[in-house]
Amino acid sequence: MTSLAALLVLGVATATLPGCASDDPAPAFEAGSTASPTASPTGGQSAAPQARDGLGGPGASASPKPANKVLTAGNPNGKATVPAEARAVDTLKPTRTIGTGTAASCTSAAVVKAVAAGGVITFNCGPAPVTIKMTATAKVRNANGPKVVLDGGGTVTLSGQGQRRILYMNTCDQAQGFTTSHCQNQDHPQLTVQNLTFADGNSTGEKAEGGGGGAIFVRGGRLKVVNSRFVRNRCDRTGPDLGGAAVRVLSQYENKPVYVVGSTFDGGSCSNGGALSSIGVSWVVLNSLLRNNEAIGNGANPAKSGTPGGGSGGAIYCDGNEFTVRIAGTIIENNKANEGGGAVFFVSNNRTGTMRIENSTLRRNPSAKFETRGFPGIFFLGARNPTVTASTLS
Q1: Could you report the per-residue pLDDT of 237-247, keeping only the tens digit for each?
Q2: Are 310 and 383 in contact (CB under 8 A)?
């Protein structure tokens, strides 16, 4: 990714920040103020295929009903309306099932094989919660799908054991197969993870596409996260523009948003974006909880002289041009950034991006060096000040 310096002079408790740019495709998305800001920031995709339906294969064994809701995720008091396309996928008739009824039958190899095969995937690991220790990263094959759904039924944890990334999808990775002539803008695969816990993922040292994404890395297609937990995930400690201890996303079909619904991100650590990170991608975060995440790099972006760069977006790091972020019914608390945006770092280089915060609470998200006056925990450069409705920023 290339970088572009952007400078904003802010008031009390603020400092200067070098902004950054991307040459990736830039999304445009849908995106009300109780805050009273006093500082105001300054302010071509190729043809896409028709959308396709289908699960990518014949039916398999019946899905265990996701009735054992052992998993508790998100903000239970969040009241944001969830649009139909952001809801959990019906998995009552799965394409394939991992496991034969015992914990021992649910292995890393079985997960890797199922994800590569695609379709709607459920687990049958017995009645008790189970942790599957991943010995390899599960990778989506781009020709298998077009829908890839991974549903843990509320009882399954996938663990990277602090050693590896857990899940990977990249429509522009030749090793996973090309399926269109415009890999950066295709409607498939459509990846959904739901009712799952992703723990101890670690993408440190991964160099493809700039790295990041300790639990999940996605480029292209679509991604949706529903009723899932992300705990103790990691990515590289330094670097000006990499990030996403839990999730890193680069480009989405027709600039459509990544949906994060009813999910928790806890204890993530990366150079930037202790939970979520993207370049040129829009997000809709609904009824979720992001806490105790940290951006631990230093030197911002582009990196200041003598520093490795990074340290922005304690919970969320977003960069690019035409993209939007909507946060609704969500709590973002106790995150921190060594540089700017203890809660959210948002830089739209061409000043077209917008952000909305609705019925949410952002609190105790310290920014060590800079943030936008009037928006505690946020550093923002975009089309206009963030729109804040029925929310608390402190």
Answers
A1: 999 999 999 99
A2: no
